[in-house]
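quick one before i forget lol
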Amino acid sequence: MSTEIQTQSETVSESEALVLREENEGLVTLTLNRPRQFNALSEEVLAALQEELDRIAEDQQARLVVIAGNGKAFCAGHDLKQMSAKREEDYYRTLFKQCSKMMLTLNQMPQPVIAKVQGIATAAGCQLVAACDLAVAADDSRFATSGINVGLFCSTPSVPVSRNLGRKQAMELLLTGHFIDAHTALQWGLVNRVVPASRLDQEVADLAGSIMSKSWVAVATGKRMFYKQLELPLESAYDYASGVMAGNMMADDVEEGVDAFMQKRTPVWKHQ
């Protein structure tokens, strides 16, 4: 069902909302809703996304998030018109911190997040794709970190991009500003799957359904562990992962999962 989005203590209609929210049995879809601006990330859009993500992270009924864009583009990055109107370094620091907080939330929230990409994903829009846990793209979508073309290196986008791509591919994307197509993005590791645009909705639904059929305890534990261990030296990562896995073994769902495997039946998860 579609719902109204409340932003900055004001309730607005769905047609005016900067971020649309739709819920379906634990699957929450957030759709950027500035199609005429190619879903550029204005301050207001960032605030609306942050508010929704914070709310979802605390919602025990929410199991997975899909981020999509309304119209012909996924996201064209920051709102350059808004940015250029305030040429103050303190303003830019605040803006980029606001954006970075939202991107970090995607990794830190317990629910897996899938980017559903159509059209273009440029600069901070490409960053948004890279910051999501998973990404599915239409075969006609394109990706770029294009700030370099206006004299601005995409520093904050480089953080998740360089953690998705190999160094050489990341630097090519960042230093040239050139677009890459969806199949190149797949080859480089920016997206998980590429499908015809007509199949995009179904492919995302299939991927989401596969994840949501698993134990919520395992999914949430695994996501938190995955990002934490990446920050650690190898030996420390193994030590941390061993502790997490031992704790996970004590979950009721593991006992049920093992019993179901032995009995050749589908497990019935308690999600605890």
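fyi The chain has two domains: 2-212, 216-262.
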